[in-house]
Specification:
The protein is mainly α. It is built from 16 helices and no strands. It has 5 domains: about 80 residues, no CATH class; about 120 residues, no CATH class; about 60 residues, no CATH class; about 55 residues, no CATH class; about 70 residues, no CATH class.
Length: about 475
């Protein structure tokens, strides 16, 4: 019978494995973690101590100074910033520009490459140079075809830029540069006396053919989009001079002004950049908006020979020949007519000396204004409503004392009346009850059914001879009132 061999899982194997693990841990603890180091740290020294040391080499064996344990929340970048504090305080600093949102320090600052190894190692091919304000898209190779190196522009270190490096390359390579940028032609110069190339150039020539003018306050529309930069920015060599270019139409188009300045300098009120000859004028912005039929007229219908200033705006200036009233109503045509339709006349009679009220509002114009005669039309009632025989001449034409425009009948007499007109049982009586033939004479027989003989006999019996004048004795309609003539 054979027994199965356990190999490493035997008792001796497990003990050997445990001993080896303990030995590795002990050596690691004794050597401070250097057992796992991929290489020695740099001795490059700083000008002042950072985190208590002058160089990374002094941290040799203290791995935790830069490498947090896997259970800790910190990152290596956090440990770097513990010593190198303030790198991102200035938003315009190099670290803020190229590491915003991705503070991975070891991408540019690798370690464990030996004591003398440099702590800064840039990947020039992948360096985000645009973040520092200058794109290298147009500077991949020099004029002779060789690749650009960092020191071609940063001869004194990556933290400095020599502006004369631009002149050295472009003065040799480009005739156009010598013509447009040479000092005699107005080369932009900084306050330090150095060339101010970066004021206008950012590697993709933001002021060149690729410049998006539409992002400015003066987008290039229509014919402006085809104009050369120098047409508007003649002699401009700095951003300030470029921005100082005039924007008013008249500054460039004064010689094209066919109006000889009569309309001032606001060309944009009528003309557009799409087409100088395509005129669009908003007449509603003037003192004479175009309404109704006026909106369909051509400009020259009112502005003959291109004369605009001083054009009359009153109706009669253009419509005098259409005036069927022969000037009888003056020149204020708009009092009745509108621009919508000349024949559709509407007159507000309430603005005249004779406002139309009541039944007068339903009367046709010609009923009062025969033969289209308007001026001088009488406004007295008797001019249309002749005084009837019934009260002929009694009220001197004061018709409105009893009548209203609501209706000629019924009439109401409101002035004080000698005899009360409401003394009966049925309220106020009609005038004709007491005055059946004329307002100059009255009778009481309309209500009191007496016979003339009976009235005479009764009154003579009482000694009253003037019994026809009832009001003498009955001024208020009461039998007991009044005076009696016993003579």
């Amino acid at each position: 019978m054979h027994t199965q061999r356990l190999g490493c899982l035997s008792g001796m194997g497990l003990m050997a494995s445990l001993f080896t693990l303990l030995a590795v841990v002990a050596i690691g603890l004794f050597r401070g973690g250097s057992l796992f180091s991929p290489g020695p740290l740099s001795v490059q020294a700083a000008g002042r101590p950072l985190g208590g040391v002058f160089s990374h080499a002094e941290l040799d064996g203290n791995c935790a100074a830069c490498h947090p344990a896997f259970w800790e929340a910190d990152t290596m970048a956090d440990r770097c910033q513990d010593c190198h504090a303030g790198l991102f305080e200035d938003p315009a600093s190099l670290h803020s520009l190229i590491m915003s949102g991705d503070p991975t320090c070891r991408r540019c600052h690798p370690e464990h490459r030996g004591p003398q190894a440099a702590l800064t190692l840039l990947d020039t091919a992948g360096f985000p140079h645009r973040a520092v304000g200058y794109d290298l898209a147009g500077h991949r190779t020099t004029a002779d075809g060789t690749d650009f190196a960092c020191e071609d522009c940063h001869a004194n270190g990556l933290n400095s830029f020599d502006p004369f490096a631009c002149l050295d390359c472009h003065d040799r390579a480009e005739d156009t540069y010598r013509t447009a940028h040479h000092p005699e032609a107005g080369l932009p110069v900084a306050a330090t006396g150095e060339p101010a190339c970066l004021d206008c150039h950012d590697g993709v020539d933001r002021y060149g053919a690729g410049f998006d003018h539409d992002q400015l306050a003066f987008p290039l529309l229509g014919g402006h989009a085809e104009a050369a930069c120098s047409a508007c920015h003649a002699g401009a060599a700095t951003p300030a001079e470029l921005q100082a270019a005039p924007r008013a139409c008249f500054d460039c188009h004064a010689e094209d002004d066919a109006h000889a300045g009569r309309f001032g300098q606001l060309c944009g009120a009528c003309h557009t950049a799409q087409d100088w000859e395509q005129v669009e004028f908003d007449h509603s912005q003037t003192a004479f908006p175009l309404d109704g039929r006026h909106a369909g007229l051509d400009c020259e219908d009112c502005h003959a020979n291109q004369v605009y200033t001083g054009t009359p705006s009153e109706c009669a200036a253009c419509h005098a020949e259409d005036d069927v009233h022969a000037g009888e109503f003056g020149r204020d045509c708009a009092g009745c007519h509108t621009a919508v339709d000349w024949k559709q006349a509407t007159f507000d009679h309430s603005l005249s000396a004779f406002p139309l009220t009541g039944a007068h509002q339903e009367v046709a114009c010609q009923d009062c204004h025969q033969d289209r005669v308007y001026a001088g039309t009488p406004v007295a009632c008797e001019a249309c409503h002749a005084d009837p025989v019934y009260h002929l001449g009694l009220f001197a034409g004061n018709c409105e004392a009893c009548h209203t425009t609501a209706a000629w009948q019924p009439a109401r007499y409101d002035d004080p009346h000698t005899f009360p007109i409401d003394h009966g049982e049925n309220g106020p009586s009609s005038c004709r009850v007491c005055h059946p033939d004329s307002l100059q004479a009255y009778t009481c027989y309309g209500c009191h059914e007496h016979t003339p003989g009976g009235v005479e006999a009764e009154h003579r019996e009482e000694g009253i001879r003037d019994f026809q004048d009832c009001m003498r004795c009955h001024p208020t309609g009461r039998e007991e009132e009044g005076e009696r003539d016993d003579d």
